[in-house]
Amino acid sequence: MDISDWRQKIDELDVEIVRLINKRAEAARAIGELKKTADLPVYEPRREQEVFDRVRKANPGPLADAELLHVYERIIDVMRTLQRRDL
Ligand SMILES: C=C(O[C@@H]1C=C(C(=O)O)C=C[C@H]1O)C(=O)O
Q1: What is the pLDDT of residues 13-28, one digit of tens each?
Q2: Which atom, in ligand 1's list, is nearest to the CA of 44?
Q3: Distance between CA 14 and CA 25 in Å, rounded?
Q4: Which atom of ligand 1 is closest in space to residue 47's alpha carbon?
Q5: Ligand 1 centroid vs 78 CA: distance in angstroms?
Q6: Is 31 in the pocket of ligand 1 (CB under 6 A)?
């Protein structure tokens, strides 16, 4: 494959990633609404640690665990912001 083939692959993967991140955001928003009803805090560090542990276990590489967790820290930060925005 040449560069343009690999870039096309990335473009296709990005469409999937965007769809999945938005599905994750839908779930986070639903959780946010339930938290609001139950008067629970948006930030739940123990749950976030579980997510990080699961992500680390699922990591097939080539990303290092620390690199993948860096991406996930941003994703979760955005999910928290979404929950607060919708409160
Ligand atoms: C989505 C939740 O809210 C927050 C966001 C999380 C996430 O994006 O995985 C995890 C914990 C919470 O800090 C949740 O509580 O499950």
Answers
A1: 999 999 999 999 999 9
A2: 13
A3: 16
A4: 11
A5: 10
A6: yes
- The CATH number assigned to the domain holding 32 equals 1.20.59.10
Q: Letter for the amino acid at 73?
A: E
Domain total of the chain: 1
- Residue 40's domain comprises 3-85
Instruction: Say what the ipTM of the complex is.
Output: 0.99
User: Could you tell me which of 16, 48, 17 has the C-alpha nearest to residue 31?
Assistant: 48
* Segment 34-80, tens digit of pLDDT: 999 999 999 999 999 999 999 999 999 999 999 999 999 999 999 99
Residue 48 token pair: 């976030």
Cα dist from 17 to 2, 12, 21, 23, whole Å: 22, 9, 6, 10
Sequence letter at residue 58: A
Say yes or no: CB of residue 82 within 6 Å of ligand 1. no
